[in-house]
Design goal:
about 100 residues; two-stranded parallel ribbon
Length: about 100
């Protein structure tokens, strides 16, 4: 995503990355720390696959992150597997988070 944003005209100094997480929940927690440490605005945009936007925003809200989401392209052949996986993830998030 960083390369995509830069190639589409976003100044590299405006793009912050987080590369330690192993899950969306960790990514949001670590990203929140990057935001706080750099004095960045609290409102963020999550760029993720369209199938994942709902759960990503649910997890952001749980961590007190004010987030909008924007979908990236998903290869069509992956949609059935991803939709099923995300349905299970949303169910887990609603029931256990």
């Amino acid at each position: 995503m960083k390369e995509y944003l830069i190639s589409h005209g976003i100044e590299p100094s405006r793009v912050f990355t987080e590369d330690k997480s192993l899950s969306t929940e960790e990514n949001l927690a670590f990203s929140k720390k990057v935001i706080e440490e750099n004095g960045l605005p609290k409102e963020v945009v999550i760029i993720t696959d369209g199938f994942h936007m709902l759960r990503a925003r649910m997890l952001a809200e749980k961590q007190g992150i004010d987030a909008l989401s924007f979908p990236s392209a998903t290869p069509l052949h992956l949609l059935p597997v991803y939709w099923y996986r995300e349905w299970a993830g949303v169910t887990y998030t609603v029931l256990f988070s």
